Amino acid sequence: MEPREYIPVFLEHEYLKTHDGLTPAALELVHEEIARNPAQFAADDHARALVSYARTHEHLMRELDRMEDLPDDDFDRQRERLFNETRQAMHEIARTDQLCVDAQLVDILLADVPIDSCLNDLMKLEDAVRTHLCNVPGFDLEAEHYWRESELDGMDAAERTRIDPIMIGWLHTLEAIAQLSLASARYRAAADYARHVMRSQGYDNRAVGTVLLALARLEDEEHFFELSHEAGPEHAIEDSPWYLLGRTLLFYKLGRRKNARRALRDFATRCEGGAFFLLNPTYLTPYLPVRPAPRDPWDLSHQAVWEADCIIVDTPDFVTWAASVDGIEEASEQFAQRYGF
């Protein structure tokens, strides 16, 4: 979830706690003013840390966008400098407010360390944040959506999550652990952490995609299709690139080539750019801290293929086989010509 989505919601909630009875027009004005100038409404150290994080994160992502077309040497040099500067800024934010979880999370993700070390740091952060949340009134790890709604003063679990940057930071951390677990071939751990994220409400995510890819790699057909049937409409499983690609990988790994061919054609037909990104591995900006919202029609397909890379690499001849399926290379070439890839 982007900072511009959840931090203004938190600031507005905090402001309204001490300014009740506002008219609808006044509420709308407050909403607009917070969006325009959130720093003006940051009334304590925690709020100020969140606003600082949002600014630093926005700068980071804007600079990464700017660098996309640079020559490789310039890209590597400028990105390294940007990451170092951002880590320093995030570290300073976290030093002033340990509850600015996303600042700590991005600091960890930007560190140039082995993946196991990164995972270890993420798990320490997750443990610390979970311990804090367990002392927050109404939070309950065993509750369906993590909140006992009887203790939320009329709010539901979705609303309670949306107004809490610490809760959102915890969910971000769980997602990051799931992603790195998948990338490092810890498939059961990836599925477990992603399922924790799926339980939340009020937090848009595609963690179900991580579960589907992990189950496909584990050749767990029963639970793969069980999940596809049980997931709620908010997950849009039937149109998900993660489901369509995962189904292809699952059938291929099970040796059911006829089904795999049909699934692959379905993926290529229904997912913009799916065939192209499968046959042409294409760099994707790292998730900082989690999957960004799509901006282009092909972004979700790109994300799904990128996340499945560890599985694809570990599946001998899969890409060669995919290229041999009628219509796949043609679909890839048509996409490249249409969008200038």
Walkthrough of the structure:
The protein is mainly alpha-helical and about 350 residues long. Among the domains are: about 1-95, no CATH class; about 205-340, no CATH class. It has 18 helices and no strands. It has helices at about 5-15, 25-35, 45-65, 70-95, 100-110, 115-135, 155-160, 165-185, 185-200, 205-215, 220-230, 240-255, 255-270, 275-280, 300-305, 310-315, 320-325, 330-340. The longest helix is centred in the first third of the chain and has 25 residues, at about 70-95. The radius of gyration is 21 Å and the shape is globular.
State the helix count: 18
Mean pLDDT: 96
What pattern of helices and strands is seen along the backbone?
HHHHHHHHHHHHHHHHHH
How much strand content do the residues show? under 5%
Helix content: 55-70%
**How would a crystallographer describe the biggest sheet?**
none
General form: globular
- Radius of gyration, whole Å: 21 Å
State the low-pLDDT regions, or none.
none
Number of strands: 0
Instruction: Tell me the span between the first and last alpha carbons.
Output: 28 Å
Structural class: mainly alpha
Q: What characteristics describe this protein?
A:
341 residues, mainly alpha, 18 helices, 67% helix, Tetratricopeptide repeat protein
